[in-house]
Amino acid sequence: MIAVISNRNSGHNRDRLGVVAAALDGDPRFRHVITDAAEDIPGVLGMLAGASLRLLVINGGDGTAAAVFAQLFAHFSSSDLPLLALLPGGTANMTAGDVGIHGSLQTALRRLQAWAATGCATEGFVVERHVLRVDPGAQPPRYGMFFGAGVIMQGTAYAHRELHARGLRDDFSLGLGMVRTLWGLVRRDPEFWQPLPVAVRSDVGEALECDALILAVSTLDRLFLGLRPFWGKGAGPLKWSLIEGRARRLLRSFPGILRGRPGRAVIPDAGYHSQRAARIALDMDGSFNLDGEIVAVARAAGPVVITAAGPLRFLRL
């Protein structure tokens, strides 16, 4: 069985879910379940856990995918985790851009149906990614593919207020938000220039305490627009980069950083850090963004601990 979970309230699904439902409801190879909220997902996965799943398709954005990942680890043993596919049905579809089915929502759906009609071959079409497990102090664990803090929080607020509210979505909206945020940093606009005091400890390298301008952690190979802002070496599943508020030559260095090929000036002594690790602990007051979910934390409640769960397997067409 191929099961599809659609989030009715995800960005593209708000105006295209009818087309998706019509295509799937007429195809006996698919079982389509429409959810209204993240609270519906545990029940859906509990129902599917006893079924013989060939593929579980998630039609939503990054937040929907993260919510499903969390429940997969709750309802399935590691040996029984199903093969996954992601359709870009959300507002920001960064996870789908890396491990999902390519194209617009309707194009990706056609690719999926064509794959199902031609025998469901998986050789050469499956990739693996770990998932971030984030334990924020005494709060319950959360799961996702991208963790951001520092100016990423101000950029997120700007994107929600000025871009997503106007219907802009996908890589285009994320790219615009990044450009506006960078411009704010160059001008030291107080709306954006808000370094975050943080202490970082990982299982590799020395501890770091600084004012972080940008802090990003991910298990994805590429972010929106194909960006790869991680240049640290090693074998750990967690890729993380941090740019301090004191970093020199930020504007000149940024293009190389975004490609994962920084210049010679991008070194720890100049305020630039990047590693691959298996465990990261953060002491911080403030908030972070995990696949669109904003989580408030405090040093007094304990560290934010990030480890890797999975890996999960994804069908990429």
List keywords for this structure.
single chain, 317 residues, alpha+beta, Rossmann fold, Tumour Suppressor Smad4, 11-stranded antiparallel β-sheet, 4-stranded parallel β-sheet, 8 helices, 15 strands, 32% strand, globular
Q: How many structurally independent domains?
A: 2
Strand fraction: 25-35%
CATH fold assignment of the largest domain: Tumour Suppressor Smad4
Q: Could you give the distance between the termini?
A: 19 Å
Radius of gyration: 20 Å
Order of helices and strands: EHEHEHEHHEEEHHEEEHEEEEE
Count of alpha and pi helical runs: 8
Broad CATH class of the largest domain: Mainly Beta
Instruction: Let me know the largest β-sheet.
Output: 11 strands, antiparallel
Fraction of residues in H or I helices: 25-40%
DSSP summary, beta strand count:
15
Ranges with pLDDT <50 over ≥5 residues? none
Give the mean pLDDT. Answer: 92
| Architecture (CATH level 2) name of the largest domain | Sandwich
Helix-and-strand structural type: alpha+beta
